[in-house]
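Translate structure to sequence.
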């Protein structure tokens, strides 16, 4: 094997591993976006997910492009969003198109707050191969601080506050207001949306232990199922929210 081939194989494996890590940690991206939508004053500069788009190109040679989608939705199984990139070669999708894919098919995720980047697993692999000057140009083009290329952050201020990796601070701080809200609107505890999800389902998907505890204490049914027969415990297990699983069991 030639040296260039060895380098390419190594880079391909690193990108594959980066993609796998992005899929495994997507729950942190969603947790942050979940709380962003409940903030009065937005805190995120951006939030997007990278997806591989493919198109069959005769004779049976598929073309592929990695592009970003935004306005992300997540139901615990599938991710939705709108393409914000302009394809270079693909003709079966265009900027602005709606996209729906399983979380197992994402390539990367990225959110930024106060210009600090979180996620960006594949981006860090590529930054590692750049010179210092090229990394600076890259970061300036994004307008973000990506930090060290050999370390990916997944939760806001995780170094200063390691507990943020377990529970989002807003989940803790919003406990009293959630109790007050549910006391005034008790029907919300058992109400199901058009997909059959209860509030307990959504809080479990977002990894909010405190909110899950409050809902259970106030009468939420842990056995409630979505239209597809999924419980809050099922979601907690799928997303590996290990701090929530014992509570729902």
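Result:
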């Amino acid at each position: 094997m030639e040296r260039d081939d060895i380098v390419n194989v190594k880079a391909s494996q690193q990108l594959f591993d980066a993609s796998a890590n992005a899929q495994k940690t997507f729950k942190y991206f969603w947790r942050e976006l979940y709380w962003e939508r409940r903030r009065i004053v937005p805190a995120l500069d951006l939030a997007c997910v990278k997806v591989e788009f493919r198109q069959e190109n005769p004779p049976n040679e598929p073309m592929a492009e990695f592009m970003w989608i935004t306005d992300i939705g997540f139901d615990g199984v599938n991710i939705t969003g709108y393409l914000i990139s302009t394809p270079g070669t693909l003709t079966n999708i265009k900027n602005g198109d709606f996209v729906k894919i399983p979380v197992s098919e994402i390539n990367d995720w990225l959110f930024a707050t106060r210009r600090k980047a979180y996620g960006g697993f594949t981006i860090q692999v590529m930054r590692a191969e750049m010179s210092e000057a090229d990394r600076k140009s890259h970061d300036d083009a994004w307008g973000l601080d990506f930090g060290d290329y050999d370390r990916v952050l997944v939760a806001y201020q995780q170094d200063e506050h390691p507990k943020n990796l377990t529970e989002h601070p807003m989940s803790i701080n919003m406990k009293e207001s959630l109790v007050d809200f549910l006391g005034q609107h008790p029907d919300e505890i058992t109400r199901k949306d058009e997909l059959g999800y209860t509030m307990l389902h959504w809080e479990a998907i977002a990894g909010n232990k405190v909110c899950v505890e409050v809902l259970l204490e106030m009468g939420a049914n842990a056995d409630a199922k979505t239209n597809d027969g999924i419980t809050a415990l099922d979601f907690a297990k799928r997303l590996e929210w290990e701090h929530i699983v014992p509570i729902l069991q």
